[in-house]
Amino acid sequence: MANALEALWTAFSGFAPRLVGAGLVLVLSFLVARILQRLGTRFLQRIGLDDLFESTGAAASLQRVGFGRSPSFVIGYVLFWGIVLAGVAAALSILGLASLQRNMDLIVALAGKAVVAILILAGGLAAAGWLSNLAATQAESAGLRGGDLFGRAVFAFVLTLAVLVAAAQLGIQI
After folding, report:
1. By CB distance 3.0 to 4.6 Å, which of 15, 44, 84, 117 could disulfide with 166?
2. In sequence order, what DSSP letters do the residues of 2-48 get, joined into one string?
């Protein structure tokens, strides 16, 4: 019985510092992620990303597909979760849990691809909104009827292209 308790104590005393270190890494990564999210969002607002999306009509396009927040906020949110996932991967590495660490590394790699895919979709939405407005106004100024319908068709075509490129980024066969 004494050997079993001694073995348990030895195992715990070896694991406890790693557990504390992993906890510190998680807390620090969360704090850094929150700070960078706020700084990134403010920076993007100051350089005029939200205004650019408003002027091109992309903000209205984002609202049509369900994004009620500003583009700066959405990008800041993606940045936050990317940093938190990297912190979780680092904490698992400190704990020495190899199987969980491999899975988390795969999730972080997929999250990086997902961030690029989201940026492609955001750019596609911006381009679709701008081009659909341009097509609709040009069709109306040329005297064509159904300019709004033409603008919607252009929006759907450009957004479809963006979805296909984003899917290819994620490795989805199309």
Report:
1. 117
2. HHHHHHHHHHHHHHHHHHHHHHHHHHHHHHHHHHHHHHHHHHHHHTT
